[in-house]
Design goal:
289 residues; mainly alpha; MetI-like fold; 12 helices; 72% helix; elongated
């Protein structure tokens, strides 16, 4: 289903009222806000130092001293989950920014020009899309070595064709509209029409896709870290924590439960937020649902 919005006639107050009356939006907003707050707090404070090894405290079960227990090195898992949140969010956010910053202009340009230019850009888009983030990360790692920066590049490259396709599809639905024909008759260039009329009318579509790719970026970062291609020790990562826990599921299941729950909750919150935004800002979506 292609989302589309016209220039909204509703006031900010009415949109805000609908937002906080939408269950999916409220739940997604609260969950996402809590994850972001946890990540922000970790820059200034964590219960314990995540780089400090306390072997005497290894694999302790959750308690008042360690709410989420400790890992095989005696590190506090709650502190590691907090720091892992900021790493996952930073990687996913920058990767989505790369994908949106490059993909949206490409898709909009292809829709505006059409013809051979559109065809060439979309075939190039398909070629890039054929290489998933994991494969791209493996190739980049083989050349430059593992690390969070290379994970960002790999996920960002994968996001470019996604946003290019979405932007092109949304723009193609806008170009035949009457107000676009009026803008052309007024002498506006394709670039002016794209910036002033097309992009504002596909903003909701891009915003919803952005939340989806943000959630997928967190999953991709966790997967790359699980394989040792993302953030490197001693910097905690949710995916790396799952890797460390896989051989200790019997003696210390909390090592996998809490980072796994963090990934699930973060992705769920972003998906709910995206669904809520689509319901609130897209009248066609509301009617169909």
């Amino acid at each position: 289903m292609t989302l589309h919005i016209d220039i909204p006639e509703e006031t900010f107050g009415s949109i805000l009222a609908k937002a906080f009356g939408n269950t999916a939006f409220v739940a997604g907003f609260v969950i996402t806000l809590l994850i972001l707050a946890m990540a922000a707090v970790s820059y200034a404070w964590t219960p314990y130092d995540v780089t400090k090894l306390v072997i005497s405290d290894k694999t302790q079960a959750p308690s008042l001293a360690h709410w989420f227990g400790t890992d095989h090195f005696g590190r506090d898992i709650l502190s590691m989950v907090m720091v892992g949140a900021r790493n996952s969010i930073a990687v996913a956010l920058v990767a989505v920014g790369i994908g949106m910053g490059v993909g949206v202009p490409l898709g909009a340009f292809a829709a505006a020009r059409g013809g051979l230019v559109d065809e060439a850009l979309m075939r190039l888009n398909d070629l890039v899309f054929a290489f998933p983030a994991l494969l791209s990360a493996i190739m980049i790692t083989a050349i430059f070595g593992p690390g969070a920066v290379n994970a960002i590049i790999a996920i960002g490259i994968f996001n470019i064709p996604v946003f290019a396709r979405v932007a092109r599809a949304g723009a193609l639905a806008i170009w035949p509209r009457e107000f676009i024909l009026a803008a052309r008759a007024a002498g506006k260039s394709s670039a002016q029409i794209t910036i002033e009329h097309v992009l504002p009318n596909i903003a909701t579509l891009l915003l919803v896709q952005g939340t989806i790719q943000f959630a997928l970026g967190i999953l991709a970062e966790a997967g790359l870290s699980y394989l040792g291609l993302g953030a490197q020790p001693p910097m905690p990562s949710w995916g790396r924590m799952l890797f460390d826990a896989q051989t200790r599921m019997v003696v210390a299941p909390w090592m996998a439960i809490f980072p796994g729950m963090a990934i699930v909750v973060a992705v769920l919150g972003l998906n709910l937020l995206g669904d809520g935004i689509a319901d609130i800002l897209d009248p066609k979506s509301r009617r169909q649902r």
